[in-house]
Amino acid sequence: MTAYRATLIPGDGIGPEIMRATLAVLEATGVEFDWDEELAGEAALNEVGTPLPDATIESIRHTQLVLKGPLTTPVGGGFRSVNVALRREFDMYANVRPARTIIPGRYEDVDIVLVRENTEGLYVGFETTIPIAGDPKAVAQSIAIVTRYGCERVIRYAFEYAVRNKRKRVTIAHKANILKAVSGLFLEVGRAISSEYEGRVEVDDVIIDACAMKLVLDPSQFDVIVTTNMFGDILSDEIAGLVGGLGLAPGANVGDSAALFEAVHGSAPDIAGKKIANPTALILAAALMLEHVGEPDAACRIKSALQRTIRDDRIRTADLQGSATTMEFADAVIRRLS
Ligand code: NAI
Ligand code: MG
């Protein structure tokens, strides 16, 4: 078996701690990776004077595959988000966020994959304020840009994901009744593409506000959801909440020239260095990476080992009211793997 070449960015705060745990779990699957370790974020700023070194970008250009810990972004001043810069640099247009029940709680059977458009919409940064009659901010405007090209590629990604992962249905979440141009185009393209998948994947569509409510009332009715950038930003945190919060939520950023796998949460400076962070989200991100490179069996084994450790063995980190350290938790997952 040849090793998969990939760029490894340990990250800031709890990043190196949860990355160590994640690498141990990955190694225990027997799937081999040839890691090129690179810097980004605060760690890079401190060591080489820039938050996103050229060497890191070059490495990703070669490997096209990244496992990344969380990166600290200074609030207010300081450097701009390295996460956003990486998504832009490699045009990673699909943000994939699965949410699945691990701990039985309020919701038993959540199994949703949200595919969020990652490059367009209201987040393109076309923003101005207009002064009128001495008020410098009398009017503020943010312009949403949605292209047919952008809609097509992310919607097609969602349907292809559904086919690959034997998912039944794709739900297009939109606001085409009010935002007739930008959301209307997304829905129109969605319906057109869905016809290519007739007989293979079901399709329906739902207005975004109703979608938010239905998710809370009965999340089990959803399968794959595809939506535009801002709606997806909001829904992805909502579905993370449905399954127990940030410590359990992985994410993938996928484009044609690179794919980057990470936890949804940040660098958690409040618990950094204490060795108590929950590595589950990053371990699940590594499982997504295994699926991406074509190792679905190893991914499946990781997910099942995680579920057994958390649910059956009740070995949990502090955020889930347990007392296991990061590495104790990882070791328990590894025992379940074998
Ligand atoms: P955060 O997600 O780092 O922390 C929020 C709360 O959740 C904290 O109380 C933290 O202790 C807890 N938490 C997060 N992950 C956890 C884990 N694995 N185990 C146990 N508890 C966990 O969000 P915050 O504090 O808003 O941001 C901190 C820094 O992270 C900022 O600089 C922010 O810009 C950055 N960030 C980076 C992201 C990325 O690299 N993708 C994503 C989100 C934030
Ligand atoms: Mg968000």
Describe this structure in words.
The chain is an alpha/beta fold and 338 residues long. 41% of the residues lie in helices and 23% in strands. It has 11 helices and 12 strands. Strands 2-1-3-12-11-4-5-10-8-9 form a 10-stranded mixed sheet, with helices on both faces. It has a two-stranded antiparallel sheet with strand order 6-7. Strand 8 (169-174), helix 6 and strand 9 form a beta-alpha-beta unit. The radius of gyration is 20 Å and the shape is globular. 1,4-dihydronicotinamide adenine dinucleotide (NAI) binds at residues 14, 18, 70-73, 83, 246-247, 262, 265-271, 277-278, 281, 319.
Q: In summary, what is this structure?
A:
The chain has helices spanning 15-28, 42-48, 54-63, 82-89, 148-164, 182-195, 208-217, 229-242, 280-293, 296-312, 326-337, and strands at residues 4-9, 33-37, 65-68, 94-100, 111-117, 121-132, 135-145, 169-174, 202-207, 224-227, 250-254, 259-263. With 338 residues, it is an alpha/beta fold. The strands form two sheets. A ten-stranded mixed β-sheet has the order 2-1-3-12-11-4-5-10-8-9, sandwiched between helices. It has a two-stranded antiparallel sheet with strand order 6-7.
